[in-house]
Design brief:
The chain is mainly beta. The protein contains one helix and 20 strands. A hairpin with a 4-residue loop joins strand 15 and strand 16.
């Protein structure tokens, strides 16, 4: 028996990030001298006979798959596929990361119309919930508001706020807060009326001019634009969390020859790469 006869993972197991309640699968391709016995382990314990997992085997294409039709939080952990034949054995390990069941954003209380005298401070405040945590954006007359010295966007873990440090007549208009995650989106709009004719300082001392978006600027497609931002944020967050995928092939030692080296590869990659 040679090293080439031992099982080899030409397609190793890959880490997966799945939402609770969804389905997912681990699939591998194994070559080597047949017959090959394949077993699946979760956190080091054989789970091949687990009634919650479905094992699929295609000997013709050398494909083996573990399917989880409905993911629960307790399914999170390290999964290994172990293959054995007369020439040796091989294993491949990866991780299943389970996120909470998706819930669409909810905004409570909804925004309410406000009136302000010119020069006063105004704050819009809402409580936004959802799983995963929604991306939140603020808009005025369809144009996105970015936090600066005039418009301060805040979040304290409970409330999302937009504060206008000092209102001017040109601030009058419709204000919208929008929240989006993978489960859906929610918006709330109110009207601000500023009484008075004071206008923003535009003398070049650093103050940002405020006012309605140009008439030629179309209102953005909030859902499409925010969903793109959401996926960018999710990728950024998950890229900070790495998991270990490990694949090895080993053949038994023989007294008549030196032990062949164990071939292994350890790959650090982001859970987001499995999405």
């Amino acid at each position: 028996m040679s090293y080439q006869d031992a099982p080899h993972f030409t397609q190793p197991i890959h880490s997966v990030v799945a939402c609770e309640g969804s389905s997912t699968a681990f699939e591998v391709v194994i070559t080597g001298q047949k017959p090959i016995s394949v077993n699946w382990l979760k956190d080091g314990v054989n789970c091949t006979e687990n009634p919650n997992y479905e094992i699929e085997e295609n000997d013709t294409e050398n494909r083996y798959c573990l399917v989880i039709s409905e993911v629960f939080d307790e399914d999170a952990g390290k999964f290994s596929c172990v293959a054995r034949n007369a020439a040796g054995h091989a294993s491949s390990t990866a991780e299943l990361v389970v996120q909470g069941r998706p819930m669409p954003p909810s905004i409570e209380p909804m925004l309410v119309d406000q009136k302000s005298a010119s020069g006063e401070k105004v704050t819009f405040e809402v409580n936004i919930t959802g799983t995963p945590q929604p991306i939140v954006r603020w808009y005025r007359e369809g144009a996105e508001i970015y936090s600066n010295q005039d418009f301060v966007i805040g979040e304290d873990g409970v409330y999302n706020t937009l504060t206008i440090s000092r209102t001017y007549g040109e601030d009058s208009g419709d204000f919208t807060v929008a929240a989006v995650n993978v489960a859906g989106r929610a918006t709330s709009t109110c009207h601000l009326e500023v009484e008075g004719s004071e206008v923003a300082d535009t003398d070049g001392k650093g103050r940002l001019e405020r006012g309605p978006a140009p008439a030629t600027m179309p209102k953005p497609e909030l859902e499409q634009e925010m969903m793109m931002s959401y996926h960018k944020k999710v990728t950024s967050k998950t890229s900070k969390k790495t998991v270990v995928e490990h694949t090895t092939t080993t053949i038994p030692s023989h007294p008549s020859q030196t032990n062949p080296p164990t071939r292994g590869s350890c790959i650090l990659l982001s859970a987001a790469a499995a999405l």
